[in-house]
Design a protein that fits this description.
This protein is of the alpha/beta class. The protein is built from twelve helices and nine strands. β6 (90-95), α3 and β7 (113-119) form a beta-alpha-beta unit.
Length: 290
């Protein structure tokens, strides 16, 4: 339990605290458990690894909404986690909404980012623009954003639908053939259990709204090395081109064969190998090419 910014955030941690920190940020439909199969392998490669339950999720505190920009509050929590783990900088790895927050964090706290990896994720501004200009390419995402804007009390009335909605979401975002496998069913079961934790649904709704939020702080160019991992789809190619303009260094892009939008769940071994190719090896200070 990490005490920071007046709340407690839960994290699953492994590795030597003296090693470089890799901070894993989950998406809207997940929790720290999405990374359960990559924590130990990354730690064995020489990293201090932490998969955090964001505010409102799992065993982390679930305080009422507070005044201020929700996106900046979320990235402030990430900053607090890095300090609570006794590090000055971290390699930030984020999936879905966690990836959107990784983009905002890298531009808001540039001195805290050693590198950034966004998994099937874009800066909220870039995703919002794409949804406005080419909505037919992201129909499910558009529907998700619209539903996320409904009142929280209405979502709570629909709690019995969680198993069906979570199954549909995971099936849509994983490669054909993955649904129905033991790995799929295990990941789905754990995600549903996390979503049913008391008061977690409120945090889930707030989290999904961050996908296309408008941070109220001017974004600085991102100097840290960045890697995008996403399926080989035209829509992601276009979004990657928009994202690359936020960087002062070249953007690395990678696709993990046989996976779609959740490679860390679909093929954790290949996902770890892809991260290790990009992150600095022991004794190096800068990430290498993906």
């Amino acid at each position: 339990m990490l005490h920071t910014r007046g709340i407690r955030l839960h994290a699953a941690v492994a590795g030597d605290p003296k090693d470089p920190l890799v901070l894993l940020i989950h998406g809207t439909f997940g929790a720290w458990l999405d990374y359960r199969r990559i924590i130990a392998p990354l730690a064995e490669r020489g990293f201090h690894v932490a998969a955090v339950d964001m505010r409102g999720y799992g065993m982390s505190d679930k305080p009422p909404a507070r005044a201020g920009d929700p996106t900046l509050i979320a990235v402030g929590d990430i900053d607090g986690v890095i300090s609570a783990l006794d590090h000055d900088r971290a390699h930030i790895v984020g999936h879905d909404t966690g990836g959107a927050l990784a983009w905002v964090f890298a531009s808001t706290y540039p001195d805290r980012v050693a590198s950034m990896v966004a998994v099937s994720a874009a800066h909220p501004t870039d995703l919002r623009r794409h949804l406005r200009t080419r909505p037919w390419e992201l129909v499910f995402m558009l529907a998700r954003v619209a539903v996320g804007r409904l009142p929280i009390w209405l979502h709570q009335l629909c709690t019995p639908l969680i198993p069906r909605v979570w199954r549909r979401e995971l099936a849509l975002n994983t490669a054909p053939g993955f649904a129905g496998t033991p790995e799929f069913e295990e990941a789905l079961s754990l995600r549903i259990r996390a979503a049913r934790v008391d008061n977690a649904l409120r945090g889930i709704v707030r989290n999904t709204r961050l996908l296309t939020a408008s941070p109220r702080k001017n974004a600085s160019p991102i100097e840290a090395p960045a890697l995008l991992i996403h399926p080989a789809q035209t829509v992601w190619t276009r979004i990657s081109a928009a994202s690359s303009r936020r960087l002062t260094s070249p953007l690395d892009v990678a696709t993990i064969p046989g996976t779609k939008n959740a490679p860390h769940i679909e093929d954790p071994e290949l996902f770890v190998e892809q991260l290790v190719k990009f992150l600095p090896a022991p004794g190096r200070t800068e990430p290498g090419p993906a």
